[in-house]
Amino acid sequence: MTPQAELLRAFVPPRTIGTDDVTSTALLEPAYDAGGDAIDHSLGDGVLHLALLDAMGHDLASGGTGAVALGASRATRRAGARWTSPPPSTRR
User: Fold this and answer.
1) Half-sphere exposure in the Cβ direction for 45 (13 Å, CA)
2) Of 2, 24, 32, 89, whose CB neighbour count within 10 A is largest?
């Protein structure tokens, strides 16, 4: 496994999540050469959140970029923001 794939693998969520109403399954292929690709899915408050990220490339820099983007996406979701929401600095 490449270092970049190992880095992202540490942050990837469980392959399958679900409730009685919805199931989400996601995985990265080829798993041992994921590079800057990343996925995230979570269920909360009756909403399925899905993020598909591609940091372009298959080197350690793209793996790091993908990991940072994944962390930013999760932090934004956990803060209650939506991708359609304006940035906090522009809210009134």
Assistant:
1) 4
2) 24
